[in-house]
Write a structure and sequence with these properties.
Blueprint (H helix, E strand, L loop, with lengths): L2 E7 L9 H13 L5 E5 L7 H10 L4 E6 L6 H17 L4 E4 L7 H12 L17
Length: 135
C-alpha cells in the first residue's frame, strides 16, 4: 500500500496568503521524504483538490489522507469537501480517500496557537500542558 497525503486549504486571491501553507508542505516533505504529498485549494488558487488528488493517484497512491488545513469544521469542510471526495471516489475507485479532522482541532495545534498568542505578553513563558479541554 502506498499512502499519500493531500493538504487542503481554502485559497485566496493574494498569493502571499499561501506562504504558511507552502511552509507546511515543505516541512512535511523534509520530515517524511518518502511520502507523496500535495497541497491543494478550494478556490482562487491552484491546484484544486481534484487535480492534486489525481496526481497522487497517478503516482500510485492506493490510499490518500486528506487533511483540511482549516481552523474549524465549517461549511467548506462539512459540505464542499465531501462532494469533492465523492467525485474522487468515482474517478479513482481503486484509491481509498480518508478525510481527517480539520487541522485546527488537533490538540497540538490548539496549544501552539495559544502559545503563539501568549508569547508576546510580558513575563509569559509558553508551556505545553499536553491536553486541551475546548469546552
Amino acid at each position: 500500500m502506498k499512502i499519500g497525503l493531500l493538504l487542503f486549504a481554502h485559497g485566496a486571491r493574494d498569493p502571499n496568503w499561501s506562504l504558511p501553507f507552502q511552509a507546511v508542505l515543505e516541512s512535511v516533505r523534509i520530515r517524511a521524504p518518502g511520502v507523496p504529498v500535495a497541497l491543494s485549494y478550494l478556490e482562487f488558487m491552484s491546484p484544486n483538490l481534484i487535480d492534486a488528488a489525481q496526481a497522487l493517484a497517478a503516482a500510485g497512491c492506493t490510499q490518500v489522507d486528506v487533511v483540511p488545513l482549516f481552523l474549524g469544521t465549517g461549511g467548506h469542510v462539512r459540505k464542499d469537501l465531501p462532494l469533492l471526495i465523492d467525485t474522487l471516489r468515482t474517478i479513482h475507485p481503486q484509491t481509498t480517500w480518508i478525510v481527517r479532522a480539520s487541522i485546527g482541532e488537533a490538540p497540538g495545534v490548539i496549544e501552539a496557537i495559544a502559545d503563539a498568542s501568549l508569547s508576546g505578553l510580558s513575563g509569559h513563558l509558553p508551556t505545553y500542558s499536553g491536553s486541551v479541554d475546548p469546552q
